[in-house]
Structure formats: structure tokens, C-alpha cells
Amino acid sequence: MLKVLVACGNNAGTSILIANKAEKTFKKLGIESTFTHASLNEAYQIAADYDLILTPRDLVKQFTLPQDSKTKIIGLTNVLSEAELVDKLRLFEVIR
Predict the structure, then answer these.
(1) Pairing outcome for strands 72-76 and 33-39
(2) Which fold has domain 2-91?
């Protein structure tokens, strides 16, 4: 089971949009996963507990994880694009 954290600036609309799109996409791809969404401030504190973080592209650099962390952070340019999400899941070797 893949644990996914979706983060945006205020835990308002963007994280919910990303989470909804990602959940549908992961189901189509047959990826068993659980989703949590959080504000950026909350996400910093819990990021290492997740396998994957999805966030708008401009927020990726704000995450710092321990060097030995296996957590992957994917920044999305178009948060509603299923094609971009799938491409980046392949790029980050979440799927083949």
C-alpha cells in the first residue's frame, strides 16, 4: 500500500483537487494507495512518514527530508492533468 501525502500552501482547494485526481488515476492504474492532504506547514512535519508526496511544482524545493529518506516528492505543473501525473509517476519509478 502506497502512502501518499498531498500538500499545498493552505490545505485548501489545491491539495483537494490533486488528491481527487490522483486517487482516480491510481485506481485506474491499479495502485493500492491511501491519501492524506495537508497544508505545507503540516506536511513538513509528517513528510517522512509517506512514500510519496504530491504538491504543486513551485513548492517542491520547500521540502527537506533526511538523506536516507525513501520518500519521493513529485511537483505538478498542471494539478489536474492525469497525463502529467502518469508521466511523473513513471519518471520517479512509482510505476513502469
Answers:
(1) unpaired
(2) Rossmann fold (3.40.50)
Cell numbers found for residue 83: 497525463
**Which amino acid is present at 27?**
K
Place of cell 494507495: 33
Residue-level pLDDT, tens digit, the chain, 96 residues: 999 999 988 866 888 889 999 999 999 999 999 999 999 889 989 999 999 999 999 999 988 888 888 999 999 999 999 999 999 999 999 998
Q: Are 11 and 37 in contact (CB under 8 A)?
A: yes
Residue type, 45: Q
Q: What is the 3-state secondary structure (H, E, C) of 23-48?
A: HHHHHHHCCCEEEEEEEHHHHHHHHH
Contacts (Cβ under 8 Å, ≥6 apart) of 23:
33, 35
